[in-house]
Amino acid sequence: MTNALANLIDADLSEKRRDLSRQELRDLYRVDGAAERKQAARQGLWIAGLVYLLFSITDLILIPDVAAYTIAARFAVGVVMLTLIELLFRYDARIEWLDGTCAVGLIIGYAGWLYPAMMTQQIQTFSYYMVFGAIFMMGANLFFSFRFRLSVISSGIVLATFFLALHFFPASGTYRLVFGTFYISCFTFTSYVNWKLNVERYNVFLNALEARNQHKEATERGKALLRLSRTDPLTGLENRRAVDERLRDYWSDWQLLGSSFVAILIDVDFFKKFNDCYGHQEGDRCLVQVADALSATIKKHNASIGRYGGEEFIVLARMERKEQVALLAEAIRRTVENLAIVHEQRRDGMSIVTVSIGAAFTRSQTGPKLEKIIHEADRALYLAKASGRNCVRLFDPSDPQSSDESENIAALLKIAINQDLVSMVYQPIQNVDTGRLEAVEALMRLRMLDGTSVPPSLFIPVAERTGAILELGRWAIRTVCHELILDNHVSLVSVNVSPIQLRTPGFATSVAAILTETGVTGNRLAFEITEGLEMEMHSDILRCISDLKLLGIRIWLDDFGTGFAGLSWLRLIDFDTVKIDRSFLHDCRSSRGRAMLKDIIGLIRNRGHKILVEGVETEEQLLLMREFGIDKIQGYHIGRPAPADSFQTNPSAYKRPVRVLRSA
Ligand code: C2E
Ligand code: CA
Ligand code: CA
User: Fold this and answer.
1) For residue 155, what are the contacts with CB-CB under 8 A and spacing of at least 6?
2) pLDDT of 535-544, one tens digit each?
3) What is the set of domains in the chain, with CATH numbers?
4) Pocket lined around ligand 1, Cβ cut-off 6 Å
């Protein structure tokens, strides 16, 4: 892993690193540190200029007869050259120009002084004074940091000027030999030292360049590592770690500056199925495609995106208003839908990949914890899935499913059985033909500690989400066996079973254990199943159902017509009875609704299932059911859910509608 990482980083860096040619190096050397060198040249010329002017004193002492001229020359040269260097410096001229000016200053300084000085009558003194000319040569080679060529040329000109002057100077042969040799040696040595200095300077530059490069490489390597540690290798998006950091930033901005933001969780629908069907490579490709499309979409909204888990993405965006949130979330949903990635294995009528989206917007009640907003987005996502997927849900604090209340319910469910807060009630199911009580449906009830009852529409989804349904479900079956079946008051009890239970390994075994423990036979029980949230038809669900059937338990399909997968479930499972949701009966007031119910009845009957219609609330509805030849009915008109003892003491109470029927 670390090797692979190192290779990746190397590849990343080698793109940027390229060996420089000699010429490029020289060019780089020329511009390297130019600003400091310019400053140094300027300072050097000022020091040299001042010393040059100070030498006016020696002029006065040694050659007083021409001192006025030499001093005038010194000042003229000094002022001109210093003005020039200041101008060049001010207008940011290239270093070559500044160095050149210094070199010219040296030559003119020497020649400018030499010429009037040679007019002196103090021949003897001047012949000694001539030795100071060597200082100009040393200046060119050693004092300034000229490049070798410039220093040789300038000191060479100084040397030539000296020899020219020597030519016209009335001096002895010995003098010429001594001074000539001295000047030439001085020129040679200082030029040599200059050459050495330049080589040294260049080496220092190379070393510094190398050190700089190494430093840069190390920083880039560090950056690349950091980038990799924050990137999801599959999609190239930020990974969960990076997203969490970003979330913290958004959160503190919200807390400190009040800049609101939204957290949007995006979950690919039926992705497990997609993987199972098309293979993991295709699955990966699908995720990459979705990730790319999402990145493109959110760019316009100045948002950030990351991969939050297997098939889950997260988008964070600063937003002012809640309406913008809905627009962005919807845009995201549509983007994925428009990709039209084929997914034929989902059984909800769609054949392309879609996403479910849950979003949560900062609100003043969000509280001091940043996990809260993710938690809220997660709740909203859960609701989006529960609403049939491929849709957007915004966290709504007033929705009991999302509110803190469900938190309380979750806590309550944990203690419900031990504290005797759950109970079962039973609603009669009537055989339409005989008018007899054919079965009862067992319905769960939950009380809070203060006695207020919590409706199943509230606590069942929470129990399913938290997994509490598993224990409650076993408890319900055991209670049903004890309360009703053992006393033989009712021949058949239908129990609602959630798909979560069916999906859990060992469920059928635990049912078998309860039957053995209570001495009840399976044919006294029916399990009502709904497509529910986890409507993906897992093979484990099918296996569980066939195991339950082996125990003699009948399987009923509940709430037919309200879910998405109803028809495909009918194809896959041989249900004993199908319960038609009460909404169809209630729609019968219109002729269209009536026709619809008739069609549904025809369809189910053709498949050979028995039919139960729920929600019979009036006499007319009951008569209609008779007319339609329905097998079983259930509803407030037949009987409301009641505790077990009302069946034990007076089961005939539920025969009232039967009498009505007979008299009809
Ligand atoms: P469901 O299985 O469709 O149960 C029927 C619901 O309709 C019950 O509501 C019942 O009281 C109500 N109902 C019965 N007759 C009529 C009628 O004539 N008119 C009207 N308007 N409603 C009628 P309840 O008891 O509130 O249960 C709601 C849902 O909670 C149930 O719907 C079922 O899905 C779930 N549930 C209840 N008990 C359990 C359980 O033990 N386990 C599981 N997994 N789910 C349960
Ligand atoms: Ca039911
Ligand atoms: Ca039902």
Assistant:
1) 136, 137, 140, 141, 187, 190, 191
2) 556 778 889 9
3) 2-214 (no CATH), 240-403 (3.30.70.270), 418-663 (3.20.20.450)
4) 427, 443-444, 455-457, 460, 476, 496-498, 528, 558-559, 582, 615-617, 634-636, 641
